[in-house]
Write a structure and sequence with these properties.
- By secondary structure, the chain is an alpha/beta fold.
- It folds into 2 domains: about 180 residues, DNAb Helicase, Chain A; about 260 residues, 3-Layer(aba) Sandwich (Rossmann fold).
- α11 crosses α13.
- The longest helix has 30 residues.
- The N and C termini lie far apart (about 60 Å).
- About 0% of the residues have low confidence.
Length: about 450
């Protein structure tokens, strides 16, 4: 029973919408012909049922389906008996028989399922509305925070997510088996991580996976913004149906686009700053502009943007595939924090939660501590500036590093070689990857894989 500030909504005089007839028609159709599940499962899940009994019967049916067991009156009866859904076997027989006998027509099962889902959405909307009203009247949070809460609750309903119920292992198993089945099928490319365009990195981290928080850190002027832009461009070209959003707290949209054009058109970045562009360069710029104009790539250069604002803007993007934020230390938290370290920890935790809620990878750029800048040694996880729990919240931590500084060696190879260090990889191994840096065109490229 839904509640509002600890009081069941029904006791407030609000009648929650549901259709027991539609729920029973769905279950009855499946008992008569188990192939009806093929039409039903893409539309509803167990949590969409209002009746506890109907919800639990559907859970048993779905589990039987995932395990390849036959579904009919006898097998379902045995399953509900073992699950203790009814108080007696006679009650179970009577309930299942009535559902199978009274189903109007199996051919309309998808329509019955849509009715069940629509009623669920209305109930979720009522519950969310009451929750929003309660927080707006009782909470001490700012109006901005309350708006974010309201938007989040509506977003969860629209995206079919629910944070109010526990999930039993059988339902989780069903979802996992369904995912594995799709992962091994023809739609595999829709489920695996997004390719960054850097083959060795993709092999190591299996691409940019949904809900992952990826930290990309480096000292100033090593090229972390350029590397992030390279990834953004590569992803938007590889996956034209996926939107890539980059939030920059340091550079303007014009500066970011100039770097992208420099990389794609192979025109010196210096030319974009001075305006000294040769006719041949204009032709290359024109050739690069056309495909870039069709890319699903977005930039936001709002200074001092908060995590809540990034989340709100990102939610409005259709088919969101990747979020990049440049960079962490320029952000501030709206709440009070005991220290800067605590504030940064709160921000990274919020980004990890956001990645999970929006179900997209987030690349968060970060600076290194001043001690590392002075020592010029290879960075470690503890070198993350204002580190706190940055490395704990992150699924992957990447560092860009030059072993030999330009003023130490005149060798072009050494000057342009940058080490991409994978120092944390929650689901894989760590290693170093050698990249080649083309400073003239602000572009990185893969060279060789290293484990040193």
């Amino acid at each position: 029973m839904a509640e509002y500030s600890g009081v069941p909504i029904e006791m407030l005089g609000i009648k929650l919408p549901f259709s027991i007839e539609a729920e029973q028609a769905v279950l009855g159709a499946i008992i008569v012909d188990s192939r009806a599940l093929y039409d039903v499962m893409p539309i509803i899940s167990a949590e969409n049922f209002y009746s506890r009994i109907n919800k639990e019967i559907y859970q048993e049916m779905a589990l039987m389906f995932s395990m390849g067991k036959p579904i009919d009156f006898v097998t379902v009866l045995e399953a509900v008996k073992l699950a203790n859904i009814f108080e007696s076997e006679q009650e179970a027989k009577r309930y299942l028989f009535e559902m199978a006998e009274t189903v109007p027509t199996i051919s309309n099962v998808a329509s019955y399922a849509k009715i069940v889902y629509d009623k669920y959405l209305l109930r979720a909307l009522i519950t969310a509305s009451k929750d929003i009203m309660y927080h707006a009247s009782e909470s001490q949070d700012s109006a901005s925070a309350l708006l974010d809460l309201a938007e989040q609750r509506i977003y969860e309903i629209r995206s079919g997510k629910s944070s109010s119920e526990l999930i039993r292992i059988d339902a989780a198993l069903l979802e996992t088996l369904d995912y594995l089945n799709k992962l091994s099928g023809p739609d595999r490319h829709k489920l695996v991580g997004l390719e960054t365009g850097f083959g060795h990195l993709d092999k190591l981290i299996t691409g940019l996976n949904k809900a992952d928080l990826i930290i990309l850190a480096a000292r100033p002027s090593i090229g972390k913004t350029s590397f992030a832009l390279n990834i953004a461009t590569n992803v938007s070209k590889k996956y034209p149906d996926k939107a890539v959003v980059m939030f920059s707290l340091e550079m303007t949209q014009r500066q970011l686009v100039a770097r992208v054009l420099s990389s794609e058109a192979k025109v010196s970045s210096q030319a974009f700053r001075t305006g000294e562009i040769a006719p041949a360069d204009w032709r290359r710029i024109a050739e690069a502009t056309d495909p870039l104009a069709r890319a699903n790539l977005y930039f936001d250069d709002t200074s001092g943007i908060s995590v809540q604002e990034i989340k709100a803007k990102s939610r409005r993007i259709k088919n969101l595939g990747l979020i990049i934020v440049d960079y962490l230390q320029l952000m501030s938290s709206p709440g009070r924090s005991e220290s800067r370290v605590q504030e940064i920890s709160n921000i990274t935790r919020a980004f990890k939660i956001m990645a999970k809620e929006l179900d997209v990878p987030i690349i968060l750029l970060s600076q290194l501590s001043r001690s590392n800048e002075k020592q010029r040694r290879r960075p470690m996880l503890s070198d993350l500036r204002d580190s706190g729990s940055i490395e704990q919240d992150a699924d992957i931590v990447l560092f860009l590093h030059r072993d030999i500084e330009e003023d130490d060696d005149d060798s072009a190879t050494n000057k342009n070689e940058v080490l991409l260090m994978v120092l944390k990889n929650r689901n894989g191994e760590v290693a170093n990857i050698s990249l080649q840096w083309d400073g003239q065109h602000t572009k990185f490229s893969s060279t060789e894989f290293r484990f040193d």
